[in-house]
Amino acid sequence: MNIIQLDENVSLTRDLESGTEKQQDSVQAIIRKVREKGDQGLKDLTEMYDGVQLDELFVSEEEYAEAYKDFDDRSLDALQRAIGNIRSFHKKQIRQSWMTTEEDGTMLGQKITPLDYAGVYVPGGKAAYPSTIMMNVIPAQTAGVRNIIMTSPPNQDGKLTPAVLVTAAELGVTHILKAGGAQAVAALAYGTESVPRVDKITGPGNIYVALAKRAVFGQVDIDMIAGPSEIVVLADDSTRPDYAAADLLSQAEHDEMSSAVMVTTSRTIAEKTKAEVETQLADLPRKEIAEASIKNHGAIYVADSLDEAVEAVNELAPEHLELLIQDPHALLGKIRHAGAIFLGSNSSEPVGDYMAGPNHVLPTNGTARFSSPLSVDDFTKKSSIISYSEQAFLQEADDIAAIARMEGLEAHARAVEIRGKGEK
Length: 424
Prior knowledge:
With 424 residues, the protein is α/β, with parallel strands linked by helices. It has 15 helices and 14 strands.
């Protein structure tokens, strides 16, 4: 982990893999097979890529029941507390349809309608990500989506892990497709004999999932093309190096491509944090992954002032930003670009990942400059409502026709004028 002095020559951006031509061709072939072969194509591809022969594509009631037998009460309590916190937060995001009426009788408004179907992709295999399920399913449910189809790749025994199944059951998800990769995305986007076509696909995945989501965008909506996880820790003289190092490693252990960065005004803190990272790495179970992340995509930048440090943070536009400084609240107004902002030493990034309530599906790779966390809004659509009275229409008809003719659209102008003449 290099310590770098910030100056005008330091580049803070990084280029991420967008998929090789071979990967893109493979994804297109997978999508074609699912569209042509439907359920059988899904089964064939699951056997090919996951080594699993599936008799049934969807999780059975017996599998749900079995999962609870293998799940301990302490873990269930933690899940239920997290579900409650996440639901409470997302309920505050609900928007209402609205209508205004003018004195001339004009009525204008906006109608908010939930999507009919949402598809949630959850990474699987040996890994279990109950937090991904909660963060994608809860905003969809809160928005009013009635049909949620979850999909996750199975283990070698053709089943999903108990943590995944119990979390889904606690949320009331009853349709779980046992498939992953580009084939699962294709099934959600186009539908098969047993998989309904959805309106939107959300959830993270590997490069093949990302490429598949990009390929089907337009056929369906998607949340984002998520890149590797990122964290930026903003530090000053008051920062505890052991806290900072632990938080940097909490992101580094996700993936070799994850980015863990500190920006600090103190070279002393920079050096102590670097040493702490090396110490804490020693007995980390996912040491190889975290070590590769820190080596290739980690850095500590030293700024001459807090203003310079904040400027660097805004340029990085990180997925996660921790303000581990003396007075984080005072600095909040200067932060323009970040997916989630964690204030103070008690608000470590995992608090947001699992329990606090705000969504942890966040913009990555600098896209926090223009995009936001997943929310209830992502599972609704808005329709404009327009109702003109005769009085209002006649007052503005000539202006409407004039603008239409500016654009060379004579039929538009005549559609207004024919009403102004009172013709039937």
